[in-house]
């Protein structure tokens, strides 16, 4: 939620300031990785079952690559992507006031 709110607020600020940069958020999907490699039993189970339901690393990177490089995403800003498509986030994720509060709170944390 915080990542979506932050990207939306950043996109709004870029637009307000006339900056020609886009800011978007995305969900890469559930990806099978080697994060559990030191937990042999869990790793074997997750790799065995994960191959059936999880994306591989290349599939998981596809949406990031699409948003960064595809001409169809050029100029699109302040949006949420999933599986290389625009996706409608939750109502809370679209709350501009909440995004501004998060932005201000983050600035206070960084300044402290």
Automatic annotation (TrEMBL):
Domain of life per record: Eukaryota
Coiled coil: none
Species this chain originates from: Aegilops tauschii subsp. strangulata (Goatgrass)
InterPro entries attached to this UniProt entry: NAD(P)-bd_dom_sf, TIC32
Protein name: Short-chain dehydrogenase TIC 32, chloroplastic
Alphabetical list of PANTHER family matching this protein: SHORT-CHAIN DEHYDROGENASE TIC 32, CHLOROPLASTIC-LIKE, SHORT-CHAIN DEHYDROGENASE_REDUCTASE
């Amino acid at each position: 939620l915080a990542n979506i709110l932050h990207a939306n607020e950043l996109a709004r600020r870029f637009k307000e300031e006339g900056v020609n940069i886009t800011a978007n958020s995305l969900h890469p999907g559930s990806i099978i990785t080697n994060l559990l490699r030191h937990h042999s039993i869990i790793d074997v189970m997750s790799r065995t079952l994960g191959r059936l339901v999880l994306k591989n690393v290349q599939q998981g990177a596809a949406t990031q690559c699409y948003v960064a490089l595809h001409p169809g995403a050029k100029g699109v800003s302040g949006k949420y992507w999933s599986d290389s498509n625009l996706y409608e986030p939750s109502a809370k994720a679209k709350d501009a006031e909440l995004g501004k509060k998060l932005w201000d709170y983050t600035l206070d944390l960084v300044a402290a």
